[in-house]
UniProtKB/TrEMBL annotation:
Record's keyword terms, sorted: Signal
Signal listed as a keyword: yes
Span of the signal peptide: 1-18
Taxonomic superkingdom: Bacteria
Source species of the chain: Sulfurospirillum diekertiae
Protein known as: Periplasmic protein
Length: 174
């Protein structure tokens, strides 16, 4: 009887769980958490990072929120430059509005002040981004909003040059 139970109920449920194990777009941390800097990986998408940043803002952990936000915007810029359908670039702004819009206005203003202060001295964030490296995930969040065929990425894009452009031109890293 136990073997029948295992075969019918337990094994199929384990297979369903295992099928999502390697999905690149599954969040690597609980979306409801405010990630520490050491938890940030180059496999986190801007969606994950913005949600974590918003949680930090709710918890009034503004330096952490800023760090997550900067990585998310850098990765979003990189992603929007590597997808074929350039109309998806507006998706990042829509994403920010959806995630940060509902937050308390006072907390959003305090976050904005912390962000402005960090933008005046980007050395620490730029060093962190250099060590973190370019994104390793597939930008499903952008591609699924586009109208292109195939995998949605520019064929043979130069990831190193694009990552350098993201850091030095977009973020103005020293």
């Amino acid at each position: 009887m136990q073997k029948v139970f295992l075969t019918i109920f337990l094994i199929p449920s384990l297979l369903v769980c295992a099928s999502n194990l390697f999905d690149e777009n599954q969040p690597l941390v609980a979306v409801g958490s405010c990630m520490e800097r050491i938890e940030i990986k180059n496999s986190h998408t801007p969606v994950d990072l913005f949600k974590s940043s918003a949680k930090c803002i709710e918890e009034e952990k503004y330096p952490q929120a800023v760090e997550l936000y900067l990585v998310a915007t850098a990765y979003g810029y990189f992603d929007s430059a590597r997808v074929v359908d350039k109309s998806t670039r507006q998706s990042l702004d829509t994403l920010k509005t959806e995630i940060f819009g509902p937050l308390d206005a006072t907390k959003r203003n305090q976050f904005a002040e912390a962000l402005r202060a960090r933008l005046d001295d980007m050395k620490s964030s730029c060093n962190f981004l250099e060590k973190l490296g370019k994104p390793t995930y597939y930008p499903k969040y952008l591609v699924e909003n586009g109208v292109t065929r195939g995998d949605g990425l520019i064929l043979n894009y130069d990831a190193k040059a694009l990552w350098d452009d993201t850091r030095f031109e977009y973020l103005k890293c020293p």
